[in-house]
Each structure stands twice: as C-alpha cells, then as structure tokens.
Hints:
Bound molecules: calcium ion
Helix content: under 10%
Largest sheet: 6 strands, mixed
Amino acid sequence: MADSTYTVTIPAGAVENLVGNGNAETVWSFTVDNTAPIIESVTITPEIAPRGGDVIIRVNAQDATGISEGWVSIYSPEGQKISDMILTETAGSLSCVWGVPMSSTLGTWKVGSITLIDTLGNQGEYTRDDTFQVGDGEVEPPSRFTVVLLSPMGGERWSGIKTIKWDTTGDSLPVDLFYSHDGGSTWTQIAEGLENTSEYAWDTSVVPEVGNEFVIRVQVTDGINTEYDESGLFSIVFIEAKKAIAGPTVARTSTTFYYDFEEDGYLYIYNSAGRLIYKTRVYAVDGYYQWDLTNLNGAMLGNGIYTYRLITDGGEMSKTGILKIERSSGLGN
Length: 333
Ligand SMILES: [Ca+2]
C-alpha cells in the first residue's frame, strides 16, 4: 500500500453479529507509512554571505506521519564536507543557521545532502545541489567608539579664539568639527580629519555670522560607523576692543547691542544732532540688549543716523558706534 491514511467504513447493519455493536455504522482509520520524508524545496538566505555572517537554510518537506529529525551537510568549494547541521522545527518548517567561519574559502558553497527521518524511523538521505556564496564583504561591526563634546556646552558667548574640547573612547580616529549658526538647520565645516587631540583652537572672528543660535558638532567616523555629539546653543559676537557693537547696523525693526564688560552700566543712544534720545540699564551677565528703535517715550524713531555708547558704573566706556534706522516704506514716519 502507498503511504496514506486510509478509512474503512462498515455500513450500518452489514456485520452486526460480528462486531456486536448493534446496527450502527462503523468507521476505522489507519495510516500506512513505509517511506522517508520527501523534500519539496530548500531555501538558503542570504545568497551571498560574508565570513563571520550567518546562513539560514530552510527545508520544506512532507511526510505522512511527520518528521522527527534531520540534518543538512555543508560542503566547501573544494567539495569537502565541513559541517552537519541539525534541523529544528519552528512554525511548521525545518531550518538551521550556519555561522560562516572566518577562515572559510571564498566561492560557491553548497548543501550537498539532506537526511530526514520520519516518526516511524523511515530514513532518507538525499543528494542535493543547493548553493550559496561566501563573499568577501565584511560584517558591519558594532561601533567601538564614542565621542562627547565638552566645550562649548551651550550658553557661552564666544569671540576671538576659543577652544573646542571633546573626549573620545575606543579607537583613536580622525575628528571632524562643524558649526551651525542657525540652531542646527545648516552646517559649515570648521575642520576635517583632525588628529584626535581632544581640542581645537577655533578663531571665531572668521565666522561671517553673529548671533545666539550657534551649535558645535564633533564627529568621529571609522568609515562605517559615525558617532557625533553637539553643544547647546551659544553665541558668537566679535566685539574686539570696541567693547560694544550693534547689529544689524542698518536697522528696520530692531537692532541688538552686544557688549563685553565686567560691570553693569547704561546704554546711551543719540540722534544725529547729538541729543540723547534713549537710555537703558544693561547688565554684564546678559551680554546683549535688543532695542526696538523707540525713544524714551516709546515712540518709533524716524529714519536717520544714530550713535550709541555704553558706559559702566565704574566709568569704563565703549567706543562710540554708529547705526542707521531705515524703515521700509509704509512703516516710516
Ligand atoms: Ca514516512
């Protein structure tokens, strides 16, 4: 008989004296299984595996009574049997994972034979030619390094030459530095491929922008993995010996006075005739004061040339600076 499950049905009343169960129908099932499991398909992924990677071999097979065990034999490109891998059953299919040894020959490997045994002990060994490649690609290693930016942290007001500091762990790798003047929306490279010396003297006077939304990024890469860290927002204002500077110098709605003093003081603004038209308290800790182009009474000032000076409580004075109010038409007065 062929492998299958058979059903014998004895019609009602046919053999009532023999089986002694009255006049009812009798049904009897049995299974015949004299053959080994049959392989339907073999799937190997990936098609190309790197040394040190994993190859997953899935065997789809059928058997009338079920498969109890099996293994696949893996052959090198030289035709040598390297490994017998036991198949395990998960979610109705048989599979195994073979870790490609680092010493493996590159080229075409194959599953040269598969052995399957059913639950009744019927064993079949099938010669196969299911191949996969061992290639020279590398397995992406986990990142073995980190980088932390130590200075600036955020909140600083920088001008002139300042030191960017960072710390790394792991492999010593080249460092790239970037800055953003707009809170991280756009980035400009400061230095590329620095030796990992943990600090860099940066001349902020070459930065064309000023403002309080600067960010520094320090980045380390080994060509595969990239790690970086960023500062909080900090300011760059190049004040030099003037001690106070306004920007923009052609103001339409406001301008900001940046200053660099140890003590608190007052900001004075004069019109072109030399008459004081605005005065306000400024604090050393702030470092800047934003002015809305109004006079002491809160009235909008007209277009024209204005001068300003900052004097601290201790009598230290900035140089006198010049700015221009030039409101767009419609806003002017
Ligand atoms: Ca069988």
